[in-house]
Fold Acyltransferase 3 domain-containing protein.
Amino acid sequence: MAPGTHLPSLTGLRWIAAFLVFGFHVQVGGRLPEATATRLVQDVFGAGATGVSFFFLLSGFVLMWSSARERPGEFWWRRFARVYPLHAATAALALIVGGGLPPAPVVAANLTLVQAWSPDHAYYQGLNAVSWTLSCEAFFYLMFPLLAAGIGRLRPDALTLTLIGAWLVIVAGPFAGGPAVWFFHWTPAGRLPEFVCGLALACLVRRTAPDRVNLTRLWCAAAVVTVAGYVLAGRVAEPWNLAAYTLPGFALVLAAAALADLRGRWTPWRNRVMVRLGELSFAFYLVHVLVLRGFETVLDTPRPDLSAGVALAGSLCALLSALVVAWVLNTTVERPARRLLLRRGAVSR
């Protein structure tokens, strides 16, 4: 399969992952009162943090799928142009919403994307808290040329073993206890196996003849494994609730969506609305916690005495507001800055 073949369903799936993370932050932040309706929301989004794992898996898949022959410096510049302008803009927003300047080392760690290497909560959750995942992505990008060169040469059986081996690291590693729990939750090295799974999965899909795959059976398997894993993830301890139970299902969903796109089959994620939401998902992810904090500041929430209806309505308003802010950032910062930086990079060469 030729590298770079467009897979619109994967863009649409990005929105699903971002929405799960949003729902997780709504319910985990004490923004909902104890009521039947909100307990249902907690059941649905209790494992929403696994959306981050999906992003890491998808990042590896997409980078490997679209990889072309280019020098590492060119690859790193393209990733910088893709990620950093929006990171800088949302870091500035975090300073405004936070109402104060964090310690200079915390700001420096965040702006240089090394914050997730620190065991200090003030660092890896400092400034814009969700940007710890960009610290992980920066490490993945740094390692990508080396990893892609090695994994890209593997045969299908070795790729399958790589997938299984990386997943077993995620499952078994935290049993060491102590610092291992923090390591496999927050650090770039601890989250690297999820990225590696994406690389290996992309190679496997690329070497699979789409017409030889029974998509109905694959979709059924993906649905069963994903739902079961998601339900279990909401009932186990950290860090097994982050990736261990959901990674197999997520991998099956990615493979099924990619193969469906290659065959031109319908999926619920490849329509125009879902693809556009997927395009906004990066900006949405980076601003959604800031928007939630803004609502709390203005409305003096969270408040446990709110009714379920009012709390859910407020969460919906926050969702729509975050989408509006994401659209503004996407159209005024993310895309223009990327075009400008890539144009300058091309001129410099």
